[in-house]
Q: What sequence folds into this?
């Protein structure tokens, strides 16, 4: 009888565990679908937008956006335009060299994950811009963000000094 019991236990373990795991996954997918988010389109919004004031003879500066996506699928930021810049703004990513130097590398697009978002920083993804004229702190710069799936967003970014507190900026 113990041999039969051992075989039944082994069979249950071999079959039961995968069936149980599939049941749990199916229950999770059912809950996600019931919530109405399964397959829903992306819904991207900008909750913070600022641009650094440029200094001296440096022709470029950087803009930063905090993007949220409370939709059910990811989207990609694929293009940025501005009438307040000399050249079209460019998405870029900062990298460090082994010797401690930094450089920017252009990127074609960035993902805005579903149910999450993207926060641009001076040490990661940002937008390289060349201002028309001199921007002063408190001024606003207009941008249009275009996405692979969602509607374009027209926003205004506040000019701040590099290193300034940005946690109290008004919503764009």
A:
């Amino acid at each position: 009888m113990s041999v039969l019991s051992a075989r039944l236990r082994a069979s249950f373990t071999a079959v039961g565990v995968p069936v149980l795991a599939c049941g749990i996954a199916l229950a999770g997918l059912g809950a996600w679908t019931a919530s109405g988010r399964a397959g829903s389109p992306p819904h991207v919004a900008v909750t913070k937008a600022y641009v650094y004031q440029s200094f001296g003879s440096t022709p470029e500066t950087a803009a930063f956006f905090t993007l949220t996506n409370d939709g059910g699928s990811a989207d990609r930021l694929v293009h940025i335009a501005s009438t307040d810049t000399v050249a079209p703004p460019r998405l870029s990513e900062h990298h460090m060299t082994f010797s401690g130097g930094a450089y920017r590398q252009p990127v074609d697009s960035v993902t805005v994950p579903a149910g999450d978002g993207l926060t641009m920083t001076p040490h990661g993804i940002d937008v390289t811009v060349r201002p028309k004229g001199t921007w002063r702190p408190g001024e606003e710069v207009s941008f249009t963000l275009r996405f692979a799936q969602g509607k374009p967003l027209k926003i205004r970014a506040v000019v701040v000094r590099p290193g300034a507190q940005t946690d109290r900026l008004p919503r764009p």
Q: What stands out?
A: Residues 55 and 61 are 9 Å apart (CA to CA).
